Amino acid sequence: MTTVTAALSTGRGRTALGVVGALGAAAAWFLLSANSDNVYFPALSAIIAEAGEYWTTPEGLANIRASVTTLSAGLGIAVVAGVAMGLVIGQLAVVERMVSPALEFARAIPSTALIPFAMMLFGVSAEMKIFLIALGCVWPVLLSTADGARRLDPTMMASAQAFHIGGLRRQLYVVFPAVLPRVLVGARIAIPLGLILMVTSEMVGAQRGLGFVITQAQATFQLLTMWSGILILGILGFLLTSLYAVTERRLLRWCDPRRSGTN
């Protein structure tokens, strides 16, 4: 039992468990919907066939590409802005006390509530969707980075000062590597938030994207297309989180020698 537990605790073991869980969930969905004659809950085999028929066409691929581009831009802006602001807030107590009330006020406003404002500001455009995604995803990155910067090891900082490492060099080569695990925690939380905001923003006034296709299919009673869009969205989320998990393990391998044996 101990050997099995140790094997499952490795990177390959966790991957194997994830694959087994995903296959189990897919099998359960397939069996539950196999004989379904409910148009609102079609068989998984029919959904997969529709996905292969529509989402491999130039139109379907263009919609997927539009969603991925918007999501990538929004998440990229959120991570860069969140890290930059988090480092400043976490290291300067005066700045933290000054901006905390405004940050708490802004963070309490759901990003979806700002859709009308974003549409007035940017119109029905890709910029509007990127703005909403970035606004919603910046908070977990910012707060996690600030928490990491607030807890920097005093000995490490004193050593950097003793070696006259200051300014931008200290931020790049001392502070940022130290807070990188916290940055990655915030980014992990931001990815599913970005997917939600991506779909939501595409459902309002957009002309392309996964959310647009799902909404249009629902409005025109093309339920197989609607379900196929939901399936593609789930696959996209799974691929993004899997890719992120691999990237995270590689980035954090330097801080834990035991990670070198887990892939």
UniProtKB/TrEMBL annotation:
<dbReference type="Pfam" id="PF00528">
    <property type="entry name" value="BPD_transp_1"/>
</dbReference>
<dbReference type="InterPro" id="IPR035906">
    <property type="entry name" value="MetI-like_sf"/>
</dbReference>
<keyword id="KW-0813">Transport</keyword>
<protein>
    <submittedName>
        <fullName>ABC transporter permease subunit</fullName>
    </submittedName>
</protein>
<feature type="transmembrane region" description="Helical">
    <location>
        <begin position="219"/>
        <end position="246"/>
    </location>
</feature>
<feature type="domain" description="ABC transmembrane type-1">
    <location>
        <begin position="64"/>
        <end position="248"/>
    </location>
</feature>
<comment type="similarity">
    <text>Belongs to the binding-protein-dependent transport system permease family.</text>
</comment>
<feature type="transmembrane region" description="Helical">
    <location>
        <begin position="130"/>
        <end position="149"/>
    </location>
</feature>
<feature type="transmembrane region" description="Helical">
    <location>
        <begin position="71"/>
        <end position="93"/>
    </location>
</feature>
<keyword id="KW-0812">Transmembrane</keyword>
<feature type="transmembrane region" description="Helical">
    <location>
        <begin position="15"/>
        <end position="32"/>
    </location>
</feature>
<dbReference type="InterPro" id="IPR000515">
    <property type="entry name" value="MetI-like"/>
</dbReference>
<keyword id="KW-1133">Transmembrane helix</keyword>
<feature type="transmembrane region" description="Helical">
    <location>
        <begin position="179"/>
        <end position="199"/>
    </location>
</feature>
<keyword id="KW-0472">Membrane</keyword>
<keyword id="KW-1003">Cell membrane</keyword>
